[in-house]
Task: structure prediction
Amino acid sequence: MRYLLLINDQESMFATMSPQEMGKMMGDYGKFHEELSASGAFKDAARLRPVATATTVRVRNGKTLTTDGPFAETKEQLGGYYLIDVKNLDEAIRWAAKIPSANHGCVEVRPVWEENEQ
Amino acid sequence: MLGDFDLAEDALQDAFAVALERWPSAGVPENPGAWITTAARHKAIDLLRRSKVRREETAGALLEGEHPAPGAQASRSHTQAEEEAIALLESRSGSTLSDDRLRLIFTCCHPALNREAQVALTLHTLGGLTTPEVARAFLLPPATLGQRLVRAKQKIRQAGIPYQVPDVDLLPERLPAVLIVLYLIFNEGYSATAGDDLIRGELCSEAIRLGRILASLMPREGEVLGLLALMLLQDSRRAARISPEGELVLLEEQDRGLWDHDEIEEGKRLLDEALSLRRPGSYQIQAAIAALHSEAETTEDTDWPQIVALYETLLRLHPTPVVALNHAVAVAMAEGPEPGLALIEEIGRHGFLEDYLHFHSARADLLRRLRRHAEAREAYRRALDLAGSTPERQFLMRRLRALEGDEGSDPLTRNPAGQE
Result:
């Protein structure tokens, strides 16, 4: 089954991180990425730019409404994702727990709605 | 064996139904466990065909080493039927079935499901109660419970919750939820906050039955044995806890002759076994407290200092306000109402138990013993506001009336939290 692991973290935390701390976190992500790829579960991943760069689009009555910022203000922000393919939820949870950001933010595990499923 | 929860559940039930139809006339097969497993696998294949849900990994696991065979159509079995089949199997053979039940317990109590869903699923899937009975016990319309079950099963399927016992490294994280669910089921029956008494008694028995299964499957887990011991020791007092008039009877007023001594003996034996594994935990400590109560001839004979010490250990493991309250009541019994009340007022200052009935009734009782009657009455009234069930209300009314009528001390009102 495919699962999307949504990484939520406080962006403000990154602003106060020392270069050493930032470097360690990048290193941890590198190791996680390697392990995930080696297992064959890796499908896709991306790191997102901060919510300040976000634009939200809605279409109402045929009119496109474009607003600045994210669609909702939250304490933690979506900062990236991994798409993985594993056997079941327990395996997905295992990988989610290994994502470095899980140590301060949180990771939401969402099963992908496959086309052939109801 | 079967990798899919729904299929496994349905297939097992169908296989039981067939077994019950056939065995009385054809006789019990040599190895009923294997027979059921094979029959269940055939049923599962049958169900797979019918449902047209063909997920590759499920079908793969299912067909492994087994040729699909057409199975006879069987109606879904009833819980009672399942019960009888299980009892029959357990008396005749082995472990395949038990392994399936262990997997079911862990699937039902998976952390991705909310607690309500865990309880409903466990009772429905493994329990000896029918869905309407479970609904009645929890004062829910059957339709609401039904919907809860449908949603829970949907989540199991859609989120990919595995039908398996978690790996050893995940067990410490997963087992507590299973124990909590069993204890919740037990307490729902035991604390009698509302509802039909008869059904509630069945909830206790059901939790104990499931606890026995778990203990037989995981005999090296101290807390599993500890929980079973605790439930047995508490359940041994069930008959003495409610008076013929339906009123709650506290521990110290109970007719100890009504206690079930077989359950006490079994509970104490299990507790010894658990303690010998040297992996202490909160269920074992609570069972030890219950065991001390069961050993005393009277309230006065009870080893209160030892109970205080056990609550202190429990507080270190689980520093919760309710544990602190029980500790305070034990201190009052061991050392007198004054130090007990001081501890209770300290809990009160944090405001954690403002809406907790037993906080107010315990406080009321200690105030009363210290002859601070006006404050005691006020605390009893606060407790009455919070009391849900009739036995509890009757009990508090009686205490309040006694206080308003006779200003003297009543030797029976010393342990309102009842240490239960």
User: Anything to note?
Assistant: DSSP finds three helices and six strands in chain A. The helical segments of chain A are 11-15, 19-39, 89-98. The mean pLDDT of chain A is 93.
